[in-house]
Amino acid sequence: MSAQAPSAVILVRAERFVPNPATAADNAFQHDAPAGQSVDVTSAKALAEMDAVATALRAAGVRVHVFSDEDHTRPDSVFPNNWLSTHAGGYVAVYPMYASNRRHERRADVLELLKSSYRVQAIVDYSGLEPDGIFLEGTGAMVLDHVSRVAYTAVSHRADTHVLERFCSDFNYEPMAFEAVDSDGVPVYHTNVMACVGTDVALIALGMIPDEHRREQVRERLTVNGRKVVELTEQQVQEFAGNAVELCGRTPDGRRRYIMAMSARARRSLRPDQVAAIEESCEIVAVDIPTIELAGGSVRCMIAGVHLDRRPTQEPEPLTEAVEAINEAHPVTADGQDVLVDA
Fold first, then answer.
1. CB-CB neighbours of 313 under 10 Å
2. d(CA 343, CA 336)
3. Is the pLDDT of residue 314 over 90?
């Protein structure tokens, strides 16, 4: 199994969803809900999209932990990858967040689930840097190459280079920081909207890195071990084509398979040659999430990958008709524990 592609993920099922007013100023991807659409309707649509993502990933053989969020003051809690990352060897990182109304998205129950179900050696918490105005918003701010140990980072006030270097020192990554802007000169707010690193393929909008020398350094670093680079256009980035993530699933007969999870909007923006390049190494799993994308993030932002070894568990009992009925009626649960029996 590739170190790059986790076989388990954490999702947050936010019962109250709206594009966050506190992040609108610097997130060029964010948009308001349709005029006249109530918060209740917006939330209901987003919930259906969250469940669709969980269902699609489970169907691909990925282990999915879903946590319910009933707190109406956390509009961006659907994006847990900004406050949490996990790493081989049993390490977890917790990050400082730019928007003050996002800081209480950090949840002890998520960390407890990781400690109880997986082997966790240490949790490194950088959130104490928030009072100093220093932020690094997890795997939104960094796109991590877990194989070559590189942290690709578009510099912004959400990705401070000092804490980046501290993270890289603590977790043994090489920092690869660069400036990235759109055609209007607006900085890219999160690296993971313009880049995705998989085991054998990377998607990245190299043209959004204005420094030609740095652009070629990034290209070279991505390809040094034979990885294929699929270059995205800025327009494709606007369609969230860069906001994808490679995961390890299983076929119905138990064989491992690699998938590239992205939104249906992102998939539609790709050219046939780009799709073919991705599908040389992984299957594309695309889910339509137009409501969630109003908040300025897409499928990758929704997923916190679990790069940890599982603790041994007892063999599950055979499914009864009653359990099968529960599985069908409730594909996701509130406490992060799977109802569905693992493939």
1. 8
2. 17
3. no
The C-alpha atoms of residue 247 and residue 257 are separated, in whole angstroms, by: 9
Q: 3-class SS at 246?
A: strand
Q: What are the C-alpha distances in Å from 43 to residues 103, 122, 130, 150, 319?
A: 21, 35, 29, 37, 33
Model pLDDT, residue 284: 98
In the chain, what is the straight-line distance between the N-terminal and C-terminal CA atoms, in Å? 16
Nearest to 274 by CA among 307, 240, 236: 236
- For residue 336, what pLDDT band results from cuts at 50, 70 and 90? low
Give the single-character DSSP code of 183.
T
Q: pLDDT per residue over 86-143, tens digit each?
A: 999 999 999 999 999 999 999 999 999 999 999 999 999 999 999 999 999 999 999 9
Q: Residues 171, 198: contact at Cβ < 8 Å? A: no
Domain residue spans of the chain: 8-329
Superfamily of domain 8-329: L-arginine/glycine Amidinotransferase; Chain A (3.75.10.10)
pTM confidence score: 0.89
Cα–Cα distance, 137 to 157 (Å, whole number): 10
Q: Which two tokens stand for residue 255?
A: 């064989």
Asked whether residue 150 carries a pLDDT value surpassing 90, the answer given is yes
Dihedral sign computed on CA atoms, order 53, 244, 88, 277: positive
C-alpha span between 278 and 267 (Å, rounded): 11
Tokens at residue 229, please? 């680079």
